[in-house]
Amino acid sequence: MKKINVQRIADQVNLEYQIQKLLEDAVYVERFLAKPHNRNCPSMYSLIETAYTKEDYGYWTQKLKLRANPKQLSRYDFVIDLLLMIKEDIFDDPIFARRLLWLRASHHKWTRLARHFGYHRTTLKNKYLIILERLATKVKKEIPFDKLDYITYKI
Q1: Distance CA 1, CA 143 (A)
Q2: Using one digit for the tens of pLDDT, what is the confidence trace for 2-17?
Q3: pLDDT grade, residue 62 (50/70/90)?
Q4: Number of helices followed by number of strands (H, E) in the chain
Q5: Distances in whole angstroms, Cα of residue 61 to Cα of each of 30, 55, 57, 79
Q6: From residue 120, how far is each of 23, 88, 113, 125 by CA, in Å?
Q7: 34: which DSSP letter?
Q8: Which DSSP string do the residues of 35-89 spell out, in sequence order?
Q9: Computed from CA positions of residues 85, 137, 93, 31, in that sequence, does the dihedral angle turn out positive or negative?
Q10: Among residues 33, 127, 10, 125, which one has the least CA distance to residue 79?
Q11: What is the number of other CB atoms lying within 10 angstroms of the CB of residue 43?
């Protein structure tokens, strides 16, 4: 009986860890998403950086534009769905819980987050752990194992 309980706890901790890593990846991918741009109005910086002749310095240099690949976008979409699963059954204030998970995945310090939300840092950390635990339990119940396994490990 002890081995079964230890295995369940290990699975729960592993799922919480995977959710944390998915959130961190989503924050990382968000930096590479294309920003909205008005194509009808040229930017002054793009006009300055344009070089038309081969003798100009900027003619040969190209800017590296990093974009998110489809695998990263699918994980990003999955994380957005995970965050939308946070309702009143997980935490009293779902918007607070979503913001806390996202900001912590952005690697903000606990003291800065505590000042922002108006809590003590240990209280906020306990709230974060409770939200993460309840979210992992809900994910385990509602999302099919195949999809969760595919998103977390294969991609």
Answers
A1: 26
A2: 677 888 888 888 888 9
A3: low
A4: 7, 0
A5: 26, 12, 7, 36
A6: 23, 23, 9, 9
A7: P
A8: PP--TTS--HHHHHH---STTSGGGT---------HHHHHHHHHHHHHHHT--TT
A9: negative
A10: 33
A11: 10
Q: What's the residue count for the chain?
A: 155
- Please compute the mean of the pLDDT values over residues 139-153 and round it to a whole number: 71
State how far the Cα of 60 lies from the Cα of 57, in Å rounded to an integer.
7
pLDDT at 50: 52
Burial class (CB in 10 A: 0-12, 13-18, 19+), 67: exposed
* Identity at 103, one-letter amino acid code: L
10-34 CB burial, b ≥16 within 10 A, e <16? eeeeebbebbbebbebbbebeeeee
pLDDT over 60 at 155, yes or no:
no
